[in-house]
Design brief:
The complex is a heterodimer of chains A (578) and B (209).
Chain A (H helix, E strand, L loop, with lengths): L39 H5 L4 H29 L10 H20 L2 H15 L7 H25 L11 H5 L4 H28 L12 H33 L12 H35 L6 H14 L15 H29 L8 H24 L1 H7 L3 H31 L5 H27 L14 H31 L67
Chain B lengths: L14 H36 L1 H8 L4 H26 L3 H31 L15 H34 L7 H27 L3
Helix pairs in contact in B: 1-2, 1-5, 1-6, 2-5, 3-4, 3-6, 4-5, 5-6
The chains are: A mainly alpha (578), B mainly alpha (209).
Chain lengths: 578, 209
């Protein structure tokens, strides 16, 4: 079977830039993996955005499994009401370890630093990021800071939770808070540098003809995410700095005994940490937009609305932090405003879910693994979003604050949605990144397992949270055991689902079929270069003359099964060796 | 056009665009820096509103003389660096180098004066520890901000001095003109440090006198 393309599928008019040779298939073709040297130093000193993406991918994978191991231990501990494994102190340190690592060293950098770093220049037709050296620096800053924190978390342990609330974190906690906070502070600079690099790249390195409204939605997602990174992260730095100053030097800024205000810390902290949720979810939305369009072979429904919705989420997301503090003693008027704004920020999210669904309408949907993850994302994100609305209304929030309901809600968003999208994106761009096809059957199995494992783990937490089970306790009343056992069992399933890709991805690196340049028959500049891309991405900078997602003419969706030729109906198109 | 004389680095194909990118990137970084300090200014404002008399009393104990000298030094240094930046764009690397040297000297002087001021403050027991000199409890918070904000600012000064030293190094090797975009980037950063100081000075030294 040959790779069939419909006219106008490639948004480039430059035949030389299209030197993709899809059926080439030579196993050791020149690419960024080989060009530029194979020594360790050629990787650690690289300024190639693609290699930096790989460095990030390796580091965050390590952090993901470290944080995941902590989660698994927590869930095993909670099989019985009195706890199986740990003392209360150790339990506190364990959930802090899980939270800190997952939020700052996995979720925040996950999609932007890996897929974003790899794809952004390819998608806009550039040879690299605007500041390649800064890009490498950001990785070193990330790894340095993260290692500091991980040492603190493993050697001494931190028992404050990932939120570092004073006065516990400043006056009472006898754990390694200072070192952990210093590490997170340092990692913040990595986020900021990445954000600056992305925005400058998108502004100044787009290929000729790549107008703003021709950018793939993934690029827009990176843009919106970067704005939030640049403007929110420094405020986290400030709040951590003040915690460090108080612990280390006795600057009594949050000390209530002399008139200080611990609530001020919460305001500063959530001014970052709520937008940080959007740092995690906006890139996921970008990934899903790419996958849904190619899997349905449809133009994205309401492109402009998708863009405005992401910008709106980024902007309004800055004005809702107070909903984390409804029970902290805010004025009811402030609570009213924050509640209202939290409802407002749900509108653009709903627009996006609606538009993805509408994109599927009359689409030629194929259910390859990335699409399975994307559909999982849609369901889990919707549940997470709707329960978010419940939490945004003050009366319900007062009832369920600090219960497992909240835990379930943010895991639906941050794990159910964000991590599903990350895995979907990994599968979708795996052939491009590595030049190999992953085993489709195993991948679909893992996607389904992940969806069920996830719901199995976290849906019971909604119920027990609503019934009053508080979070962060090492023990619980026996009446909640059924839910905890369900949740813990689900977590084991989820762990298997997360481990599976590790194995079959590794397998595919060596034994997988060689991927053509464009295995999905997708639009987008990244598919016009060979898989894996050469060091300089494009032989010649392409000229862009089409809108994104040109899978069919405007207003003429092809009839089912007629004008689209797919490989085998699903999965990447397999090209026979010629 | 001297703007195009800078050496090209990957991935750029035009020097003008490369310079635009650098300037734009620095502006984005400055926006981020502003928010870093904004958190502290916000905290300061909240507490000033909560404890007006304690803050007014504490504010009378900071050393106005040293603060004023430092303000003058820093404003002048911004002038000299502006001259250096304009000079390199008008193809006068000699004048530009002099400007950078003056800025570097004034910046160092600032840190020396700041050090002297810190010594005086410690002699007067203004560190909010066990031997703190003032009676109003919230005065400790004021000095919490005083030490934190001036220290963070001094860190920024030190980074700025590092950047200026790099310019001096480039100038000694005759490569200032090929790096005129670095001069502009350093100038922008230095101005931010300068503006932040103006605000710190106003909040900590002037209000309530």
């Amino acid at each position: 079977m040959s790779l069939t393309t419909t006219p106008g599928e490639f948004p480039t008019a430059d035949p030389d830039a299209k030197g993709a040779r899809p059926a080439d298939g030579a196993p050791m073709q020149q690419s960024f993996w080989t060009d530029g040297g194979q020594t360790v130093w050629s990787w650690l000193g690289t300024v190639d955005h693609k290699r930096i993406a790989i460095l990030y991918a390796i580091s965050i994978t390590a952090f993901f499994f470290l944080g995941g191991a902590a989660a698994a231990l927590i869930r095993i501990h909670l099989f019985t009401p009195h706890g199986l494994l740990f003392s209360r102190d150790t339990y506190n340190k364990l959930f802090t370890l899980h939270g800190v690592i997952m939020v700052w060293f996995f979720l925040v950098p996950s999609i932007p630093s890996t897929l974003g770093n790899f794809l952004l220049p390819l998608m806009i037709g550039a040879r690299d990021m605007a500041f390649p050296k800064i890009n490498l620096l950001s990785w070193y800053v990330f790894v340095g800071g993260a290692l500091l924190t991980v040492i603190a978390l493993l050697a001494g342990g931190v028992d404050t939770g990932w939120t570092f609330y004073p006065p516990f974190s400043t006056i009472y906690s006898n754990s390694a808070v200072t070192l952990a906070a210093v590490g997170v502070f340092v990692v913040g600079f990595s986020s900021i540098l990445t954000g600056i690099n992305f925005i400058a790249t998108i502004h100044l390195l787009r290929a000729p003809g790549m107008k703003w409204f021709r950018l793939p939605l993934f690029v827009w997602a990176m843009y919106a995410t970067s704005m939030v990174m640049i403007l929110a992260t420094p405020v986290l730095s400030t709040s951590l700095l003040l915690i460090i100053a108080e612990r280390l030097f006795g600057m009594p800024i949050f000390d209530a005994r002399i008139g200080g205000d611990p609530l001020l810390f919460q305001h500063l902290f959530w001014f970052y940490s709520h937008p940080a949720v959007y740092i995690m979810i906006l890139p996921a939305m970008g990934v899903i937009s790419e996958i849904v369009t190619v899997a349905a072979r449809r133009k994205v429904f309401g492109y402009a609305f998708m863009v405005y919705a992401m910008i709106a989420i980024a902007v309004v997301g800055f004005m809702v932090w107070g909903h984390h503090m409804f029970v902290s003693g805010m004025s009811p008027y402030a609570a009213l405003v924050f509640s209202f704004l939290s409802f407002v920020v749900a509108v653009p999210s709903a627009i996006k879910v609606f538009n993805w669904t509408a994109t599927l309408y009359r689409g030629q949907i194929t259910f390859a693994a990335p699409m399975m993850y994307a559909l999982g994302f849609l369901g889990l994100f919707t549940i997470g979003g709707l329960t978010g609305l419940m939490l945004a209304s003050v009366p319900i929030d007062v009832h369920v604050t600090d219960t497992y309901f909240v835990v379930a809600h943010f895991h639906y968003i941050m794990v159910g949605a964000s991590v599903s999208a990350f895995f979907g994106g990994l599968h979708y761009w795996w052939p491009k990144i590595t030049g190999r096809l992953y085993p489709e059957g195993w991948a679909r199995f893992a996607a389904i397992l992940m969806f069920f494992g996830f719901n199995f783990t976290f849906f019971p937490q909604f119920i027990m949270g609503y019934l009053g089970m508080p979070r962060r306790y090492a023990e619980y009343p026996a009446e909640f055991q059924l839910y905890h056992v369900m949740s813990s069992t689900g977590a084991m399933v989820l762990a298997v689902a997360y481990l599976l890709p590790l194995f079959y991805f590794a397998y595919s690196l060596r034994f997988g079929e060689v991927a053509p340049a464009n295995p999905w028959n997708a639009t987008g500049l990244e598919w016009t270069v060979p898989s894996p891309p050469p060091k300089h991405n494009f032989d010649q900078i392409p000229h862009v003359e089409n809108d994104p997602y040109e899978y069919h003419a405007q207003g003429h969706a092809p009839e089912h099964g007629k004008s689209i030729h797919r490989g085998q109906g699903d999965g990447p198109v397999r090209t026979p060796p010629t | 056009m001297s703007e195009a004389s800078a050496t090209l680095h990957e991935p750029f194909e035009s020097a003008t665009r490369q310079r635009e990118a650098l300037t734009f990137g620095v502006w984005l970084f400055l926006a981020s820096e502003l928010l870093l300090f904004a958190g502290m200014f916000l905290g300061y404002a909240v507490y000033r509103h909560d404890h007006p008399s304690a803050f007014a009393e504490a504010g009378r104990h900071v050393n106005l003389l040293f603060g004023t000298i430092n303000t003058a030094l820093l404003m002048t240094s911004s002038l000299s660096l502006s001259v250096a930046s304009r000079a390199i764009d008008r193809d006068k690397p000699g004048l530009s180098e002099i400007g950078v040297w003056i800025t570097l000297g004034l910046g160092l002087l600032f840190l020396i004066v700041k050090g002297l001021e810190y010594r005086e403050d410690l002699d007067e027991h203004l560190w909010p520890g066990a031997t703190f000199a003032l009676h109003a409890p919230a005065a400790r918070i004021f000095f919490g901000f005083y030490w934190t904000m001036t220290f963070v600012h001094a860190c920024h000064m030190t980074i700025g001095l590092g950047l200026l030293s790099r310019l001096v190094w480039l100038a000694r090797r005759g490569r200032l003109r090929a790096n005129n975009d670095s001069v502009e980037a350093t100038t922008l950063y230095w101005h931010l440090v300068d503006i932040i100081w103006a605000l710190v000075f106003a909040c900590l030294y002037l209000v309530g006198r």
